[in-house]
Amino acid sequence: MITTIKKICSVFILCSLLFSCDSKEKKEDDKLSSDSTKTEKSKDVESNGISEGGKKDFATGMKTTYDGLSFDEIYLLNENKEKVTKTEFKLESKVLFDVVGIKGYKSENGKVHVGISVDVADESGKIIINLDDLLADKAEGYNEKDASELTASLTVGKPMEVGKKYFVKARFWDKKGKGEIKSEVEITLVK
């Protein structure tokens, strides 16, 4: 009888410990889910005024690296300029990379000269869309305040196909300096 009571108590204690561990893991999972819109800096080095590092958005898996330019935030947006947490896009919708608080441009005569490009690669890594320099017609440049927020835009369409995954890459760079920001996200086309 005493042995049976000990076994029952042991099972009860074991179940309590398992429940406690499971609850702790669930709380950590819930915290990660609630923090999923946050980004994490993987490294951030600044020497001689030059920044380099990387960030990852946990909600979308978007990875961003920067070298020579720095920024406050980067967002993956839809055509309504709303932050997205899923990387599924319909044909003819838009994928936007919005970089805020860019600093570190080389200025000439009070103007900065920036470039934006967007590439799309299929699952094998083959580039199927290349939008080389979306700001090529802006030879006169921008004032630094206007260039502190840049948006790269891609309208999802042919030759992309529904049901397939693609890697969308945006690059923002200083045409007079060596700084750049690169961002990449994997998207899936849905109906």
Fold and architecture overview:
The protein has 191 residues and is α+β, with helices and mostly antiparallel strands. It has two domains: 1-34; 36-190, Immunoglobulin-like (Sandwich). It is built from one helix and eleven strands, in the order αβββββββββββ. A hairpin with a 5-residue loop joins strand 2 (50-57) and strand 3 (63-67). The model is unreliable at 1-48 (pLDDT under 50).
Q: Key features?
A:
17% helix, 2 domains, disordered N terminus, 3-stranded antiparallel β-sheet, single chain, 191 residues, alpha+beta, Immunoglobulin-like, 1 helix
Number of domains: 2
Total count of strands:
11
| Average pLDDT for all residues | 81
Q: Which structural class do you get from the secondary structure elements? A: alpha+beta
Amino- and carboxy-terminal Cα gap: 65 Å
Question: Which fold name fills CATH's third level, the topology of the largest domain?
Answer: Immunoglobulin-like
Global shape: globular
List unreliable stretches of 5+ residues. 1-48
Going by CATH, what is the homologous superfamily of the largest domain?
Answer: Macroglobulin (MG2) domain
Computed CA radius of gyration, to the nearest angstrom: 23 Å
Number of helices: 1
Largest sheet: 8 strands, mixed
Question: What's the CATH architecture of the largest domain?
Answer: Sandwich
- In CATH's first tier, which class of the largest domain applies? Mainly Beta
Portion in beta strands: 35-45%
- Helix/strand order: HEEEEEEEEEEE
Helix content: 10-25%
